[in-house]
Specification:
CATH architecture: Clam
Mean pLDDT: 87
Structural class: alpha+beta
Helix content: 10-25%
CATH superfamily: Lipoprotein localisation LolA/LolB/LppX
CATH class: Mainly Beta
Distance between the termini: 67 Å
Number of domains: 1
Largest sheet: 12 strands, mixed
């Protein structure tokens, strides 16, 4: 009788149930779709994308707080990036021109800059490690996203087609030692990521970072001045205090 009622309620063999009980393995289909996305992104000389991110933080008493931010990211390979970021606590422009990393606060008029590595991959790693900040979905901006994303993967599954902002996408789920993550990749000739979720497992509350990526513009013309920073009149330079001072630019 219990089984009959479960069947009627649609709880037996539902997608959620199947996901929960699926055995750990690397699904070749999921891995191949991720590789296709990586190769496509790596082959773009320039691109522009808009993002909406939700970053969860956990207070000392265990409460989860979500912080929202919007970004417009422009990339020119191999070594240029701009991130215009807007949120409750930030209204900043981050620029990397292949030699220097700068951040300018529109609300405060303050700016800081630092020498940076000569590649986009190196600059992203440097900004994370030394200054503790990242471009939204930074793992997807490097030259070989597949290598970075799969480094610690123990399980990969293809959960089928789902729609993200009106775009049919392959929903892929991956598990690692310290983090689990999911990605939604556009179906068809443009395997672009449209949603990326990271779940941290080394904290009891398992906070998540979620970013939705929209308005993709592959191989868009980009003016060189996009990445160059000239302090506006009245802007005040401040010292950029590293989170990890020993991580210098290489």
């Amino acid at each position: 009788m219990k089984t009959t009622w479960l069947l009627l309620l649609g709880l037996v063999a539902s997608p959620a149930f199947a996901v929960e009980t699926a055995r750990t393995q690397i699904d070749p289909g999921a891995e191949e779709k991720l590789r296709q996305m990586s190769n496509y992104l790596a082959g773009l000389k320039t691109f522009r994308v808009e993002s909406k991110a939700v970053d969860e933080k956990v207070t000392t008493d265990g409460q989860k707080l979500q912080f929202l931010s919007d970004s417009k990211v422009t990339v020119q390979r191999p070594n240029k990036l701009r991130d215009d970021r807007l949120g409750a606590a930030t209204d900043t422009v981050i620029r990397y021109d292949g030699k220097e990393l700068s951040i300018y606060g529109k609300r405060t008029g303050f700016y800081a800059s630092s020498p940076a590595p000569g590649t986009l991959d190196g600059a992203i790693d440097f900004a994370r490690a030394r200054y503790g900040f990242d471009a939204p979905g930074g793992d997807l901006l490097v030259s070989r996203p597949y290598d970075d994303l799969m480094e610690d993967v123990r399980s990969a599954r293809d959960l089928g087609i789902e729609t993200v902002d009106g775009v049919p996408c392959h929903h892929l789920a991956f598990r690692g030692t310290n983090v689990d993550w999911q990605i939604w990749i556009e179906d068809g000739p443009r395997p672009l990521p449209h949603r990326y979720v990271i779940s941290t497992k080394d904290q009891a509350a398992r906070p998540e970072f979620t970013v939705n990526l929209t308005r993709w513009e592959p191989n868009v013309p980009v003016d060189a001045s996009t990445f160059n920073f000239t302090p506006p009149p009245g802007a005040q330079r401040i010292k950029w205090i590293p989170v990890h001072p020993d991580r210098a630019a290489r």
